[in-house]
Amino acid sequence: MADRTGIVMEIKNKKACIMTPGGEFLEVKIKGTIPTIGSVYTSSQVNKIPFYKYATVAASLLVFISTGGIAYAYYTPTASVTLNTSLELKLNRWNKIIKTAPLNKEGENLLNSLNVKNKNINDGLNLLVEKYENKEEKISLDITSEKNKDLDLSNFKDSSKEKN
């Protein structure tokens, strides 16, 4: 690197911060005797950021982006199940219940007595159906999903056949 000359503004460890005639502040290596603040000093410029710091930043950015992408995918609804017009369940791409919304007072009471968030749709529906069976009401499901999303309710179907 080319030698740089300037007025010494600060000294840290084995480096000096100098101000060049052009008004630029640079960090240079101290060779030999330590200069005094305010004196003119000439030395080679120090690399500002070592390579390992770039690698650390790149790795951190990669972790941040991938974590954000996974969280976005998990909390993006891809299907919706409405149970007896009293509550709505929003599902993610892995058939997990990510959001519950009561549509009336009955749905609100049902959700207050059960926690089905982050459960598999089959397990959540089985819990909700058990509550409804105590009331001896008919159960209706209204399912809406993205066009290429397959909603796997096979375990729920099997358990509901066993109960009949």
UniProtKB/TrEMBL annotation:
Its main location: membrane. It is found in: Cell membrane. It is a single-pass membrane protein. Keywords: Cell membrane, Coiled coil, Membrane, Transmembrane, Transmembrane helix. Residues 118-149 form a coiled coil. The chain crosses the membrane at residues 54-75. Residues 4-52 form the RsgI N-terminal anti-sigma domain. GO terms for cellular component: plasma membrane. This is Anti-sigma factor domain-containing protein. It comes from Clostridium bovifaecis.
